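At this stage, I put together a protein sequence along with its fold in token form, as given directly below:
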Amino acid sequence: MKSWIFLSVAILTEVVATSALKASDGFSRIMPSIVVIVGYVLSFYFLSLALKTIPVGIAYATWAGLGIMLITVIAWVMYGQKLDLGALVGMTLILAGVVVMNLFSSVTPH
């Protein structure tokens, strides 16, 4: 269970860092740039801890899938990014894939 907490922290810190990446304006603004660097360092550190017990393919697919979902919601709320039907269907399929993999794969430690 501890590894899944580490993976959750990795996902959240990666999402914060990616959100700050847009705000850093090409690393020309210092505070968002610091958030990006610290966020990515923490993200990879916690991902490395999660990988001690979670298979890398499962961890990365979960990290990427949930990260896509969260970043898209943040972009919609904070930056006014528009989502069309294709984007919503695609994200639903990504989320479904992560859920199926984590609930029904025999590779995933439950």
Summary: The mean pLDDT is 92. The helical segments are 2-23, 30-50, 56-79, 85-104.
